[in-house]
Amino acid sequence: MKYIYISILMLTLLIMVSSCQRYLDAKPDKSLVTPQSLSDLQALLDNDITINQTDPIAGDIASDDFYINPTYYSRIATIYQDMYNWNPGVRFDGDWTNCYRKLYFVNTVLDNIDKVSKSNSITSAYNSIKGTAYFIRGWSLFSTAQVYTVPYEKGNNDEKLGMPIKKTSDINDPTVRSTLKETYNQILEDLKMACEYLPVENSAATRPGKAAAYAALSCVYLQMQEWEKASIYADSSLNLRNALLDFNVLDSNALAPIPTDNIEIIYQSRILSASVFSTNGCRVDSALYLSYSESDLRKSIFYYRTSDGSHYFKGGYDSNKGTQALYSGISVDEMYLAKAECSARLNDIKESSNNLNVLLAKRYKTNNFQPYNFADQMTALTTIVHERRKELAFRGNRRWWDLRRLNLEPAFAVAVRHSAKGTISELPPNDLRYAFLIPQSVVEIGGAKQNAR
């Protein structure tokens, strides 16, 4: 009976959210559903399809990790073709809708947790649920902001358009775009609250623990160019979770060499599934593939050779065998890279090389890795940026995030090019198209400002 109630609760929420037009396309009548217990609230957060399998996809389609197989291009949905070619007028509402669907779920949890907690008792379950809700709200808002806002530029965000900030499930909550500064402040506030409430370890990879919240804060501060803070939180995460997979023990001939429950996963999630990343449609950028040396095990663990001589990505961190949804969660390797880069930014060259070497020693054939000993800051940064590209390839939006922030530095700026039907499209550094258009219904109904073109 309890299972039936929880199923009805989630189904009703999903129906209401999917039909919303005023709560950012999803304002339900919350009086129709009233959670009765902490178990009900936990069930909302454990709705894997809504919470853990709909991370933003736009950045991956628009990045330079891959190209679309020319023979398959016409079979790709028009919306994905337009995103791939950075059509100035393309509007992809999916990432926006999925974000605010998650926010409605977690705001429902936060609005009700003190009401359903018996005698207002503070238990481990209470703390875990509350911390998870704050984590999802902060992480989802951050991930989606990388799609619909311009890149964060330190000291220049007071006038730039941010995301609507939703802190309640109230159907009358107005839809107003905050400034970019306010958006990031809210993200930081939520993730820091998550740090306070979350347990050190949670019972499943799809439930965050403290290491995930620390890692998320490191990712956010890295995007904000706050190197010292990004380094501190990367350290905090690594103090709790630092084990790395040894790629020497993986089967490079397997269709999915990296196991689903591998020790590097701190928080497990995936981007929205899309045919553009199918085995027939997706091909690895040739320059990216050639950047791996023959002694680098990632070359055979991440990719396999197709019948036409090109390569396809198979190295998903939660085993992407049989799926078109890339892994987008948070992992230990990413924290070693963050720590290495931040150390270099702060001119601690030895610490920078040490962290990078720890990671790469697990990625090369035994006795084939020559540890780095950087001579200067620029050499360190150039190498680390290069290694981020190789390690985090096809890692849900990470390349897109790096393009956005690194384009602010002339030394690392990149013009991205895609070819389709004999036409080459280009996305120059800092182009306004790095912020996708927001849904037209949010502009027309909610009065939100549209991104510039």
Concise overview:
With 453 residues, the chain is mainly alpha-helical.
Relevant terms:
17 helices; mainly alpha; two-stranded antiparallel ribbon; Serine Threonine Protein Phosphatase 5, Tetratricopeptide repeat; globular; 453 residues; two-stranded antiparallel sheet
What does it look like?
The chain is mainly alpha-helical and 453 residues long. It has a domain at 2-240 and 412-446: Serine Threonine Protein Phosphatase 5, Tetratricopeptide repeat. Helix content is 44%, strand content 8%. It contains 17 helices and 10 strands. It has a two-stranded antiparallel ribbon with strand order 1-5. Strands 2-3 form a two-stranded antiparallel sheet. Strands 4-8 form a two-stranded antiparallel sheet. β9 and β10 (423-427) form a beta hairpin. It is globular and about 60 Å long. It starts with a helix and ends in a 7-residue tail after the last helix. Mean pLDDT is 92; it is low at 1-8, 18-24 and 26-32.
SSE arrangement:
Blueprint: H1 2-18, H2 38-45, H3 48-51, H4 58-62, E1 66-68, H5 78-84, H6 94-116, H7 124-148, E2 161-164, E3 177-179, H8 180-197, H9 210-223, H10 227-240, E4 265-267, E5 282-284, H11 286-290, H12 298-301, E6 303-305, E7 311-313, E8 330-331, H13 332-345, H14 349-360, H15 377-391, H16 398-406, E9 416-420, E10 423-427, H17 440-446
Antiparallel strand pairs: 1-5, 2-3, 4-8, 6-7, 9-10
